[in-house]
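User: Can you write out an input/output pair for a complex, sequences first and structure second?

Assistant: Here is one pair. Inputs:
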Amino acid sequence: MIQPHGSLIVRTLGRIVIPIAQLFGVYVLVFGQYGPGGGFVGGVVIASSMIMAILIFGLGSADSALARKILHGDGLGLLLFAGVGGLCLIGGGEFLNYSNLQIPGLNEASRHSVGILLTQVGVALDVAVTGVSIAVSLSFEQDEISRDGAIHD
Amino acid sequence: MTIEIPLLILLIMTAAGAILAKDLISSVLILGSYSFALALVWALVGAVDVAFVEAVVGAGLATVFFLLTLFRASEKDTAIRRLPVSWTAIVGLPLLGLLLLYGAGDLPVFGDPSSPASLIISPAYIENSVEQTQTPNVVTAVLMDYRSFDTFIETVVIFTAGIACALILRNGSK
């Protein structure tokens, strides 16, 4: 279990930097179709911001509540990615062929664009959850069970 | 292109420093600076997406994971024991390097417009990706649409890594 950091400078800086990093991660994720970036990088930036919150404020604090919650979402990103592929199958085409996404009112190119955006969100979710999960696993100790076993059910 | 030479020298120096450092923590930190220099090199040759990934993963996330692992491990496990270098390594590795350099001589020059990849594969993506997928960033279009199976399996690999870490390291939790 990571103890909260005692330094006032680190805590103040963390409060300023962590929201900016999360916002930047979301920006990189949704702007990945128009500039450098994409799902993987956006997910890693979001994961880094939450790992920063865990390292500065500790896993039990209110500032890392998002990181605690997201630990339960392991596999959701993969499910979203595979779900888009499954919708393509249901639409009558090949797995992950976004032309077969049955969205009314969109032409074929727009369907591809929507498919790319959804799969990018899936990759970002998967990467962010996995990054936080590995960081928590690496800082896990045996005596943690008695103190807050509720987190790691 | 005068800035390439100092960057490549910095790259080799940080790589050597990461190997020759006295303890593992400084080795990890030097490895992070190596990743940052490598990201600058990627950005210089025009691969902005790769540079982004290298800076974020290599210099950021991997360094944090290495440091967390080192803090968890005990002193005697992280002490560096240097074995004496064997003669086969001293003779064999430079020969292997020469062989690789000889093989690299037959590769097309960087940015060669007449290489097979630039003649057939790249133009098809660059010409068609905007009208087929409405995605101006060709790299994203290739990763997420034309090669989405690869990306899907990569996502499965990342998911498996997270699950495996949790299963091995959180073994006491009920």
